[in-house]
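can u do me a favor
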């Protein structure tokens, strides 16, 4: 028998995070809104249903405390995730998963803001990760608070599926945590509204770590492409 045959299997415990960015906000007036509690538009049934179909049953559902995250979760339930015989799952509000607090920048016109201080071509964000607007927080701060929530929930729901309906900032933060990237580097990722990012945390005798399954997946695109 080979040496490898003598080794006992060392299975991992897999905790799967299904990150979903909330549905698009339409009535922002061209302004930076950050943690302002604006409504989102969940009317695109093709988008919502296509996401609902790929989500696992029996999952733990969490969201930020902002209404656009909660309403997106509810739309997913109503458009294919919860059948007539299913029970609506509880939704745990986790404030640490909220969007970045942009402080005094919230309410400013996006176009004028970008014109006065253009962001790097490699970034999808308003400012460098370390910059903290007056009265708000930096993206680096966001990564720290999201990490605290991810660590806590991964420990509490070890081995489960966790569906997290959150925001562009919190999904970027989750990627920074999983990939061990500098917060500035992770801002190069695109995270579209309603997109799915899957990050699996594995723990076993040989150690622990993250595996990246998909980033910014948009399951409705294949449906849109059909003639």
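np, heres the sequence
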């Amino acid at each position: 028998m080979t040496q490898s045959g003598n080794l006992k299997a060392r299975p991992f415990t897999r905790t799967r995070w299904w990150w979903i960015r909330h549905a698009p906000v339409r009535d922002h007036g061209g302004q930076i809104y950050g943690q302002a509690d604006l409504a989102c538009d969940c009317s695109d049934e093709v988008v919502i249903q296509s996401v609902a179909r790929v989500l696992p049953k029996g999952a733990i559902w969490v969201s930020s405390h902002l209404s656009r995250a909660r309403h997106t979760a509810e739309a997913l339930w109503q458009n294919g995730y919860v059948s007539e015989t299913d029970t609506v799952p509880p939704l745990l509000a986790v404030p640490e998963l909220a969007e970045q607090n942009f402080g005094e920048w919230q309410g400013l016109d996006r176009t004028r803001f970008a014109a006065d201080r253009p962001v790097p071509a490699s970034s999808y964000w308003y400012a460098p990760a370390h910059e903290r607007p007056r009265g708000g927080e930096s993206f680096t701060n966001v990564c720290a608070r999201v990490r605290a929530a991810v660590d806590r929930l991964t420990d509490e729901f070890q081995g489960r599926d966790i569906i997290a309906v959150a925001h562009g900032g919190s999904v970027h933060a989750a990627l920074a945590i999983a990939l061990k990237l500098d917060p500035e580097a992770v801002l190069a990722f695109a995270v579209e509204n309603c997109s799915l990012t899957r990050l699996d945390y594995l723990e076993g005798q040989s150690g622990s770590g993250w595996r990246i399954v998909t980033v910014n997946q948009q399951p409705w695109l294949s449906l849109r492409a059909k003639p």
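The CA atoms of residues 118 and 189 lie 18 Å apart. hope that helps!!
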